C-alpha cells in the first residue's frame, strides 16, 4: 500500500476506530462519583436525623455501582476484543488502520480497568461509613 492509501484508511471515521470509546469508561466513573456523593449530600441534608443510619444511601450507591461496573465491563470487553483483533502484536505503532484500531482498543481496555478500580473505591467509602455524621 502507498502512504496516501494508508492515511485515507486511517482517516475513515467508523465506530470501531473512534477515539471516543476511550473516554466512555472514565465518564461512567465520573457520573457514578457525582451521583453517589450528591445522593449522600441530599439525603443527609434533607432526610436523615443525627442518629439515623445512611442505609438508604448505601443501597442507592450499591445500585449505582452495579450499573456502572456493568457498563465499564462492557466497554472494557469491547476494547479487549478490538485490541486482540487480527494478527498484529504489540507495539501498535505502524500507520495502518488495523494498528490504530488495536491501539484504541488497548487504551480503552486499560482505562476501563482503571475506571472499574476507581468505581469500587468510590463505593467502598459508602460501605465503611454507616451514618451521615
N-C termini distance:
66 Å
Structural class estimated from helices and strands: mainly alpha
Instruction: Spell out the helices and strands N to C.
Output: HHHH
- Major sheet details: none
What shape does the CA trace take? Answer: rod-shaped
The residue fraction in helices comes out at: 55-70%
Number of strands: 0
Number of helices, where a helix is a run of at least 4 consecutive DSSP H or I residues: 4
* Computed Rg: 20 Å
Strand content: under 5%
Low-confidence stretches: none
Mean pLDDT: 82
Question: Overview of this structure, please?
Answer:
This protein is mostly helical. It is built from 4 helices and no strands. Helix 2 (24-46) packs parallel to helix 4 (97-128) and helix 3 packs antiparallel against helix 4. It is rod-shaped. The relative contact order is 0.21.
Overview features:
133 residues, 4 helices, rod-shaped, mainly alpha, single chain
Give the SSE layout:
Elements: H1 3-11, H2 24-46, H3 55-83, H4 97-128
Helix pairs in contact: 2-3, 2-4, 3-4
Could you give a quick summary of the protein structure above?
By secondary structure, the protein is mostly helical.
Amino acid at each position: 500500500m502507498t502512504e496516501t492509501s494508508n492515511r485515507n484508511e486511517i482517516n475513515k471515521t467508523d465506530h470501531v476506530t473512534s477515539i471516543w470509546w476511550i473516554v466512555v469508561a472514565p465518564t461512567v466513573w465520573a457520573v457514578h462519583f457525582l451521583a453517589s456523593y450528591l445522593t449522600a449530600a441530599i439525603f443527609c441534608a434533607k432526610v436523615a436525623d443525627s442518629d439515623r443510619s445512611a442505609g438508604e444511601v448505601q443501597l442507592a450507591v450499591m445500585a449505582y455501582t452495579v450499573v456502572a461496573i456493568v457498563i465499564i465491563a462492557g466497554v472494557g470487553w469491547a476494547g479487549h476484543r478490538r485490541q486482540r483483533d487480527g494478527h498484529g502484536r504489540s507495539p501498535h505503532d505502524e500507520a495502518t488502520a488495523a494498528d490504530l484500531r488495536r491501539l484504541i482498543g488497548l487504551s480503552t481496555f486499560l482505562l476501563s480497568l482503571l475506571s472499574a478500580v476507581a468505581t469500587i473505591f468510590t463505593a467502598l467509602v459508602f460501605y465503611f461509613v454507616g451514618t451521615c455524621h
